[in-house]
Amino acid sequence: MKLMFASDIHGSAYWAKKVLERFEEEQADYLVLLGDLLYHGPRNPLPQDYNPQVVIKLLNSIKHQIIAIRGNCDSEVDEMVLEFPITADYNIIPLKNRKLMASHGHLYNDQQIPSSLIEGDIFIFGHIHVPILKQQDGVYILNPGSTTLPKENHPNSYGILNHDQFKVKTFDGKVYKEIALK
């Protein structure tokens, strides 16, 4: 199973379109959205082409291929317009030989790893807008960075998990960072 991860779209129609273009080109089975989909948030600038209504239409167009969790900028009213659930604080995705836990990062993160994860499992989160690929206490800690508002001079990015390889990619499809999962 090939998974694509995108975090922190923050209502940008421009970057939501880019996410869907890459999703199609990557031919991933599911798009895992790590939260902060529609609202830019009070601490962020307005993103490029801020238009939550367009983002709603774009994401709803592939609703059967989306797995989503709630970010700190997402609310119950967002779920009223999106045609897929987004109010879960985390999702567990069983993989062949491990489990993957996806969360936004404001509740669980690399400083607060869920105790239910064991060696070889994967924890992926967004929220900080910075890509992370590391192993900590036997658990793989991954962050695809931000599609819309990257920080610390990182590029706009997304993640791909295919077999036992995780790659953070830029929107031209180039690998920015990668890690092999053993």
Automatic annotation (TrEMBL):
Q: Which GO terms describe its molecular function?
A: hydrolase activity
Q: Name one Pfam family in it.
A: Metallophos_2
Which part of the chain is the Calcineurin-like phosphoesterase domain? Answer: 1-163
Give UniProt keywords alphabetically: Hydrolase, Metal-binding
EC number(s) stated in the UniProt entry for this protein? 3.1.4.-
* Annotated SUPFAM superfamilies: Metallo-dependent phosphatases
Membrane-spanning segments: none
**Has UniProt tagged this entry with the keyword Phosphoprotein?**
no
EC top class named in words: hydrolase
Per its Swiss-Prot or TrEMBL entry, what cofactor is needed?
A: a divalent metal cation
Gene3D superfamilies per record: 3.60.21.10
The text of the family note is:
Belongs to the metallophosphoesterase superfamily. YfcE family.
Q: Name the chain's protein.
A: Phosphoesterase
